[in-house]
Each structure stands twice: as C-alpha cells, then as structure tokens.
C-alpha cells in the first residue's frame, strides 16, 4: 500500500501551486483623505469592484484588479462632491472609471506585502504601490494604503493645482473582504 501512495504523493507535490482566486464581498471599503485649506476631508468610492489572485507562498502568480467608478466618489458634502466629480477633478463624465492593476508583489515580512501596480486615472497611467496586510481565512481580508500624487493625473487642475489649498499627496485606504471564486 505504501508503495502505491508514495509515488502518488510525490507526483502531487511536483504539481505547482497556483494562487487562489478571490472576489470582493460585503464589508469592503475604498476611501481617500486629504486636506482642503488645512481642514481634513475623507471620501469613499461606493461601487468599486476587486478581484484578487493571491497565495503568499507564490507571489509571482499574484494579480490584483480594482475598478473604481468615479461618479460614485463621495465626501458626504454636496459642494465637495459636485466639484470632485466635475471637470477640474475626476471629470467623471469623460472618464467614468479609474482602474488599479498589479502583477508584481513583494513580501514585507510577516503578513505584510506590497503590490507594485499601475493606476489609470483620467487617461493617465502611473505607478502606485499599495502596501497591505493579508489576513487569511474563510473570508480573507486585504487592508492597505497607498499615496497618490493627484497632480500626476491632472486631478485638481486650474486654481485647484495650488498645493497650499489641497496637497498633492492624497492617501488612499482600503479594506477588501473576499470570498473564493
């Protein structure tokens, strides 16, 4: 019996491991924060969608894809939101969505990782690194942060390009709860 099991076990061990595929589920959030004339503001992107292929032991096969509907951006302040979705900022009529994709991942030790990806926003593609923690389980969680230089993407043009009014660096935070696909 052992002679039959041993070759099968060795054959299974030789099969390469592939990353698990995940889809976003309830309890997920994608937010941004900055300052306007020194006053802090926070916003969210309801309706964002994330798919993730990830195995911490196989980072070379990991893939992250996030679609962000820009017209859903909200700070819960009607004045801010109208301007935010308008031509000077996201211009959500012309550019209805942003997208973040990453295929290069690094371990930062423990349960911490970095995803080196590309943010496509307002027709501009720039590198952005997302640092995150990974909590495995039946409903695994990715919790991360990134810094986006808004002026690199033309967000906040004209008078809004003044970094004394709104700093160039905007913090992005996310908590994505997943289920296996």
Task: Give a structural overview.
The chain has one domain: Lipocalin (Beta Barrel). Helix content is 12%, strand content 49%. The radius of gyration is 20 Å and the shape is elongated. Strand 7 and strand 8 form a beta hairpin. The two termini are 36 Å apart. The model is unreliable at 5-17 (pLDDT under 50). The chain has an eight-stranded antiparallel beta barrel with strand order 1-4-5-6-7-8-9-10. The chain has helices spanning 2-14, 78-85; strands at 20-24, 29-36, 39-44, 49-54, 63-69, 97-109, 112-121, 124-135, 141-149, 169-180. It contains two helices and ten strands; from the N terminus they run H-E-E-E-E-E-H-E-E-E-E-E. The protein is mainly beta.
CATH topology description: Lipocalin
Count of DSSP H/I helices: 2
CATH architectural grouping:
Beta Barrel
Strand residue content: over 45%
Query: How many separate structural domains?
Result: 1
Overall pLDDT level: 91
In one word, what is the shape? Answer: elongated
Contiguous runs where pLDDT drops below 50 for at least 5 residues: 5-17
The strands making up the biggest β-sheet line up spatially as: 1-4-5-6-7-8-9-10
Structural class: mainly beta
Topology as H/E string? HEEEEEHEEEEE
What profile does the largest beta sheet have? 8 strands, antiparallel, barrel
Q: Can you identify the CATH class? A: Mainly Beta
Radius of gyration: 20 Å
Number of strands: 10
Assign the CATH superfamily. Answer: Lipid/polyisoprenoid-binding, YceI-like
Helix content: 10-25%
């Amino acid at each position: 019996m052992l002679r039959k099991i041993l070759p099968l076990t060795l054959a299974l061990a030789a099969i390469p491991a592939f990353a698990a595929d995940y889809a976003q589920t309830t309890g997920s959030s994608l937010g941004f924060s900055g300052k306007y004339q020194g006053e802090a503001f926070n916003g969210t992107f309801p309706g964002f969608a994330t798919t993730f292929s990830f195995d911490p032991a196989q980072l070379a096969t990991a893939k992250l894809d996030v679609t962000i509907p820009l017209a859903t951006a909200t700070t819960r302040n009607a004045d801010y939101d109208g301007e935010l979705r308008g031509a000077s900022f996201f211009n959500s009529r012309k550019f209805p969505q942003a997208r973040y994709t990453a295929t290069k991942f690094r371990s930062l030790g423990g349960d911490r990782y970095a995803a080196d990806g590309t943010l496509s926003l307002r027709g501009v593609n720039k590198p952005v690194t997302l640092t995150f923690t990974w909590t495995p389980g039946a409903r695994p969680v990715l919790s991360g942060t990134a810094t986006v230089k808004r002026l690199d993407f033309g967000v906040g043009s004209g008078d809004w390009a003044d970094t004394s009014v709104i700093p160039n660096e905007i913090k992005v935070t996310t908590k994505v709860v997943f289920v296996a696909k």
